[in-house]
Structure formats: structure tokens, C-alpha cells
Amino acid sequence: MRTLPSKDHRRTRVANAYFSLFMAIGNILGYATGAYSGWYKVFPFTLTPACNISCANLKSAFFLDIGFIVVTTYISIMSAHEVPISSSGATHVGEAAGESGSTEEAFMWELFGTFKYFSSAVWTILSVTALTWVGWFPFLLFDTDWMGREIYGGEPNEGLNYDNGVRMGAVGLLLNSVVLGITSLFMERLCRNRGPGFVWGISNIIMAICFVAMLVLTFVASNVGYLGRDLPPNFVVMAALSIFTILGFPLAITYSVPYALISTHIQSLGLGQGLSMGVLNLAIVIPQMVVSVGSGPWDQLFGGGNSPAFAVGAVAGLVGGLIAVIAIPRPTSQKPRSQV
């Protein structure tokens, strides 16, 4: 049996780093769209008696989204010349359709049947992935709302403070994506020098520190005395933007390192890469559902606001980071062996 050289692991990390880079480029363009407040002038028909300026800007952004989706869908369909392949190599539509039911059943059985083959390292990666996304989802769900409510002191549809805060949050996310893209360029060097598990763990700890900083800034903003009367002081806004910007580093790690790690450890088990990615996605979407359902009641239990969800995210990120640093083994370089 021929084993793949460690160079293939490196290529996997590089590929995921490029994925993270191009995602950052798309995020920068998207958040720049959200930060611009004059879209209603570009699309004047969106401004109506029932839809004010903020509503018109949002509606205009949706029109831009529809346009980009149409263009990218057309490019994907025209560029990808894929031929459906069945297990028996049949190319007839009827034969392929006749096998579709059994293929779906086999896929679901294989997906859950792979659990018994996982090593402790794979389970550690899945656990850290779940904890990481328990940390990230409160931020991804409530980041601009936090800026609008708890930094700018506004409420939706009540004055301009909330809208100004949401737009400033979009600026923060734009800066976040810039750091995400820059980090992606150095991803391979970071992982090669320190090990992907160690880099992932440190990034999670940085993420937790940033969430704690958001809690501290919320406390400072509530005690400065400007909420409900004036715009936030410059130092509060700059501190919030700095937190958003720093979070771009751990987000870049989250978008690439877990996929490279699970691919590396699944490879030695002889399981399909598609199944491994499917299992990793389960470790992402299940925490997302838990946070989406539980964050609202959790926040209300502690008096409203977004701080309780961020506190849970900080704890989850810290625990996941410590597990990653301590428990995820560093991959050893393997020399290629020729088949005997």
C-alpha cells in the first residue's frame, strides 16, 4: 500500500487557505455594501411612503444580491461540465434514476456508520469544532445588533442611532474580512511552524478574549452616560472596531484549519473525503441550531441584550482552544514509501 507524502497534507492546508482568502474577498465586498448608506439614491424606486431610507438601503442590497446570484449561477452552470456517474457506470437516465433510491440509503448509512471507525484524534477535532462554532454563532448572529443596541444605544425603527450602529458594525466586519484575507496568505507558514492544532487552539483563545472584551466594552458604554442621548465617544467606537478587526484572525483559522485537520486524520482510515466533510459539517450545524434556538431565551433570562450569548461564546471558545492545544496531536512528516 502506498502512503501519501506529507506534501499532500500541505496542499490540503494551502487549498483551504485559498478558500478562506476568496471568502474574505467576497465578505469585504458584501460588508462594504452594507456599510454604504446611499443605495436608495442608486435605486430610487426602493424609497416609498411605506419604506424609509433604511428600508430602501436594505431592499437595494437585496437587489444586488439577486444580481450576483444570477451571474454566479450562470457561470457555474456554464463552466462545470459534469457527467453523472452511477456505481455501475451507466449513463442512461433511466438506469441512473433507478439507482438513486439505494444510493441515498447507502449514503445515510455510511455517514453514521463511519462513527465507529473514528480515532480519538478525529473525535477531538469534532469536539473542538463544535465548541468553536458555539463560540462563533452568537457573534455572527448578533454582531451588528450589538453595535446598534449596546454601543450606539438605539432600537430598531426608533431614530437613527441603531441604523448608524448597524452600518458601523458592517464597517467592523469589513475590517474583519481584510484581516481574514491577510491571515489566509500566511496560513500555511503558521501551521507548518507551530502545528495546525496549536494554531487553532491559540486562535480560539484569542476569540474568547475578544468576546470578553466585548462584554467589558458593553459595561463601559452603559456607565459612560451617553446611551439614549448622544452618539458614542470615539474611543468606544474605535475599541469596538478593533475587536471586530482582531476577530478576523481566528475566523480565518476556523474557515480552513479544521477542514485540513479532519482530511489529514480521515485519510489514514481509508474513509471517503466526502463522508469526512459531511461529519465535520454535522459538528458545525448542530451547534448552530442549539445557539439559534437557545440564545434568545438565554438572553431574556439574564435581562435581555446580547451579553449572555457572548459570555457563552467566550467560555466555549476558551474550552475548545485549550482542548486543541493540549489534545490535538501534531502531524508527523511521513516519507513516501514505494509499493513493494
TrEMBL record:
GO molecular function: sucrose:proton symporter activity
Membrane topology value: Multi-pass membrane protein
GO cellular component annotations of the record: plasma membrane; vacuole
Transmembrane intervals: 21-40, 60-77, 117-139, 166-186, 198-222, 234-257, 269-290, 310-328
Pathway involvement of the protein, from the record: Glycan biosynthesis; sucrose metabolism
Keywords: Membrane, Sugar transport, Symport, Transmembrane, Transmembrane helix, Transport
Coiled coil stretches, renumbered: none
Main subcellular location: membrane
Localization per record: Membrane
This protein's record includes keyword Protease: no
Entries under PANTHER family matching the protein: SUCROSE_H+ SYMPORTER, PLANT, MAJOR FACILITATOR SUPERFAMILY DOMAIN-CONTAINING PROTEIN-RELATED (PTHR19432:SF79), SUGAR TRANSPORTER (PTHR19432)
Similarity-based family: Belongs to the glycoside-pentoside-hexuronide (GPH) cation symporter transporter (TC 2.A.2.4) family.
Protein name (database record): Putative major facilitator superfamily domain-containing protein
Protein species of origin: Lupinus albus
